[in-house]
Design a protein that fits this description.
This protein is α+β, with helices and mostly antiparallel strands. It folds into 3 domains: 144 residues, Beta-Lactamase; 85 residues, Helix Hairpins, CATH 1.10.287.130; 168 residues, Histidine kinase-like ATPase, C-terminal domain (Heat Shock Protein 90), CATH 3.30.565.10. The protein contains 8 helices and 12 strands. α3 packs antiparallel against α4 and α6 packs antiparallel against α8. The chain is rod-shaped. The chain starts with 8 loop residues before the first helix and ends in a 10-residue tail after the last strand.
Length: 474
């Protein structure tokens, strides 16, 4: 059965529609023929019953003879006495024996259909038997009519349906085949266009039909997917080009230092040369780590997650940076309010728990602090607070540096982006810190943006709070 099943949608739709129409027409034809036959037989029976009742009434009154002629709808009449003798009959039954094999036991009316009646004309005959009481005993009146009209209608209707139904079913199949073919033509055009699109021509788009139906929406969705693929390809190629450019500089400097050390074997120069080589090697190592992390984030590779207390994490990072050029001032605005004479954040703050990867959260805060310290003039501030209404934790890092122009507040999150092209790579970094920070915030279910600040730059990360720890509430 699976081998005989049509493969294409067009063939399956045509077969299904044709089968449904064929079954529906077959049932409707049967009901039509049955209804016509029933009505015609009922009409013939009514005419015969009317004739039989009239003759039976005359017999009961004793005025049976002469026998009235058969009216319209009755083809023969026969009156039989209780002893089986024929008392009267219509001319076409003259000399015939009594109809019916049994003698009635009491008055009443019986209706029956005979396939081979007394006229022997090859058609069914509907007979009505009316038994009535007379002075001479029971008398039975047989009045019958031929069902030639009903049989003729049945034959004619059956012949017409036998010819018309296959033609109608065939017409439905052809129309369905044409309509489905026309409806699926845009789908085939979309398939053919997608089949020809390769990684080198992602600029191509599938045709969108003007029908504004499901197929048109499919084409629009497909083009949107191609837009994303093209943007991803452009971003990937740009990333590879920028990464190659960024790697070339430290590698070139490192090679130059090694060539100088090889060309001047003076031991007095080796400490300086080795120190410079180590610095460039560290830069290469950091850049390679950033590139690997970006590659992992781009592939949406899942990372292990756990419940992390941001209060503890922020305090630890702030303590580790007290010896930096601009110490980090941490302000934790959760839990109890700091008392008089206490430093901001010195109060006993309760835990602020989020679900995430501890290394990613540490890297997110570290990148924000590194960026702030790189451009700050005197201070760096780290504020941690919660928004219970939205179940969100807000982490804001501010500095008093030159700030970020409004037109560049999105460009700073682009990879290898530097607002000041003249700034050296040693001072300005590779331009990956904020890009990594935003990707990390997004993967943690939050966001990172630059918000207006009276002075300097202010970057705000929003992360969802962890759901209540049910195990710890018991």
């Amino acid at each position: 059965m699976r081998r005989l099943r049509p493969k294409s949608v067009r063939a399956r739709a045509t077969l299904a529609a044709t089968a449904v129409v064929a079954v529906a027409l077959g049932v409707a034809s049967f009901v039509l023929v049955w209804q016509l036959d029933t009505n015609l037989v009922q009409n013939a029976e009514n005419a015969a019953a009317q004739q039989a009742l009239g003759v039976a009434g005359r017999a009961a009154e004793g005025t049976l003879l002469p026998l009235p002629p058969a009216s319209h709808g009755a083809d023969f009449i026969q009156v039989v006495g209780a002893d089986g003798q024929v008392l009267a009959a219509s001319p076409n039954l003259a000399g015939r024996p009594a109809l019916g094999g049994r003698r009635p036991l009491g008055p009443g009316t019986v209706r029956s259909t005979w396939d081979s009646g007394p006229l022997h004309e090859g058609h069914r005959q509907r007979v009505v038997e009316v038994t009535t009481e007379t002075r001479n005993g029971l008398v039975t009146v047989y009045a019958g009519t031929s069902l030639r009209d009903a049989d003729a209608v049945d034959e004619t209707t059956g012949a017409l349906l036998a010819v018309g139904l296959p033609l109608l079913v065939l017409t439905v199949a052809l129309v369905t085949w044409r309509v489905t073919g026309r409806a699926l033509r845009p789908v085939e055009a979309i398939r053919a266009e997608v089949a020809e699109i390769t990684g080198r021509d992602l600029y191509r788009r599938v045709p969108v039909p003007a029908s504004q139906d499901e197929i048109a929406r499919l084409a629009v969705t497909m083009n949107a997917t191609l837009d994303r693929l093209e943007a991803s390809g452009v971003r990937q190629r740009q990333f590879i080009a920028d990464a190659s450019h960024e790697l070339r500089s430290p590698i070139t400097v490192l090679r130059t230092q090694l060539e100088v050390a090889l060309a001047h074997p003076d031991p007095a120069l080796w400490p300086e040369l080795v120190s410079g080589a180590l610095e460039d090697t560290a830069r290469l190592q950091d850049l390679a780590s950033d590139l690997l992390l970006l590659a992992r984030l781009d592939t949406s590779e899942p990372a292990s997650t756990t419940r992390v207390d941001l209060v503890e994490l922020v305090r630890g990072l702030a303590e580790s940076r007290r010896a930096d050029r601009h110490p980090v001032q941490a302000v934790i605005m959760v839990g109890e309010v700091a008392g008089a004479g206490e430093e901001p954040g010195a109060a006993d703050a309760g835990p602020v728990t989020v679900v995430g990867n501890p290394l990613w959260l540490t890297r997110l805060v570290t990148n924000l602090l590194d960026n702030a310290q790189r451009y700050a003039e005197t201070r760096v501030e780290l504020v941690l607070q919660t928004e219970p209404a939205t179940r969100t934790v807000v982490l804001a890092v501010s500095d008093d540096g030159p700030g970020i122009p409004e037109a560049d507040r999105e460009r700073v999150f682009e990879r290898f982006s530097r607002l000041d092209d003249a700034r050296s790579r040693e001072e300005g970094g590779a331009g990956l810190g904020l890009a990594i920070a935003r990707d990390l915030a997004t993967h943690l279910g939050g966001s990172l943006a630059v918000v207006p600040s009276p002075r300097g730059a202010r970057l705000v990360a929003r992360l969802p709070l962890a759901p209540p720890d049910r195990a710890g509430t018991h």
